[in-house]
Amino acid sequence: MASCFTTLLREEGPSALWRGWAGKFFGYGFQGGCRFGLYEYFKSLYSNVLGDCNRSFVFFASSASAEIFANVALCPFEAIKVQVQAQPQFARGLADGIPKLYASEGIFGFYRGLVPLLGRNLPFSMVMFSTFEHSVDFLYRNVILRRKEDCSRAQQLGVTCLAGYAAGSVGSFVSNPADNIVASLYNKKADSLILAVKKIGFINLFTRSLPIRLMLVGPVITLQWPTSGEITAEVVDKTL
To answer: Where are the Solcar repeats (predicted)?
Structure first.
């Protein structure tokens, strides 16, 4: 990370650090809205349909359903962002990148990475939401030993921050291989999933860029969460 930072500054200047910001801002904004908003909708829906079914299954199903819509919204912006970051001569940003990509590849160009993007973000989202829900449950059950409603806003925020950072970190580790594959496909360093895996190397799939993702994703995920999370009736009874 340190060598990459200094190399970018030396060779391309500070502006290189902000390249592709518009695609990330709008793309991840739409993705976050769909991911968190639809998760709550699907969790309520599946809870009503499945009743007392295993709660982890409800978390997995809800997050997977929400993430499909979130990635369809994200994919066009991600395509432009990666192209702009990896090939500065391609475009300056969204405004000129969208027509250039459409002219060269058509609609397919915007969704070239949808399958590997889902391969990265579905496991990430499923693990992230489940980790968050169970972490909140664990903290109130074993650490706070009080109802959420009886805790101050500061205590609730502390639980959310701890659970959110744990969720983002665990999700990043699980999804890191697919993240490297997505970058390789978008940068056209490989034409298929198999070639991308061979070129990157199996070990590098898990380790490349992982520290950066852990530093970035954990705080970002933490900041997106309200003081929410599920606490079962059993947990509340035990803490009274």
So the answer is: 1-45, 54-138
Cα(114)–Cα(73) distance, integer angstroms: 10
CB neighbour list of residue 153: distance below 8 Å, 6 or more residues apart: 227
pTM: 0.72
Distance CA 117, CA 102 (A): 19
Digit-coded pLDDT (tens) for 40-66: 999 999 988 887 678 889 999 999 999
Q: Which residues contact 40 (CB under 8 A, 6 or more apart)?
A: none
Structure tokens at 181: 């594959």
CB-based contacts of 34: which residues, under 8 Å, 6+ apart? 66, 69, 70, 73
C-alpha span between 211 and 213 (Å, rounded):
5
How many residues are recorded in the chain?
240
The C-alpha angle 228, 176, 128, rounded to 5 degrees, equals 15
pLDDT in tens, 195-215: 777 888 878 887 887 887 777
